[in-house]
Write a structure and sequence with these properties.
4-stranded mixed sheet; alpha/beta; about 110 residues
Length: about 110
C-alpha cells in the first residue's frame, strides 16, 4: 500500500498542514528528485560502499551489500550531504551504468541491459 504521506511514484514526502520545519521535508524531496531524475550510476550490482564516496554518487545495489549498505539490497544508494540515502527503484525505471557503459531497465526480475 502506498504511503499516504508521500507521492505515489517517487515516494517524495508531502508537506503536512501545520508541520514545523517544512524546509526539512521540502529539502528531502528535492534531494530525491535530484538523485532519481536522469539516473546515471557509478555501477550496478554493487555490494561494497566506496571508501571515499564522491558527493552525489549513485549506485544500484546488489542482493547482499555490506557495510553502510547492509540490509539495503536492490536499492538505489545516493551519497548526499556526507551520508547514504536509499531509494527503492520501481519497475520501468531507466538508468545508465557508467562502469558497464550500458542502459538498464528495472524489471520485476531486477535490472536488465537494454
Amino acid at each position: 500500500m502506498a504511503d499516504p504521506l508521500a507521492t505515489p511514484h517517487l515516494a517524495l514526502p508531502y508537506l503536512a498542514a501545520a508541520q514545523a520545519q517544512k524546509h526539512v521535508t521540502h529539502n528531502e524531496a528535492l534531494r530525491l528528485i535530484d538523485a532519481m531524475m536522469h539516473l546515471a550510476v557509478e555501477a550496478s550490482g554493487a555490494t561494497v560502499p566506496p571508501s571515499a564516496p564522491v558527493e552525489g554518487s549513485r549506485y544500484l545495489l546488489g542482493a547482499s551489500p555490506s557495510g553502510a549498505w547492509a540490509g539495503k539490497g536492490g536499492m538505489l544508494a545516493i551519497f548526499v550531504d556526507g551520508a547514504w540515502l536509499f531509494a527503492a527503484p520501481s519497475i520501468g525505471w531507466l538508468a545508465y551504468d557508467k562502469a558497464a557503459d550500458a542502459v538498464l531497465v528495472r524489471k520485476a526480475s531486477g535490472w536488465v541491459a537494454i
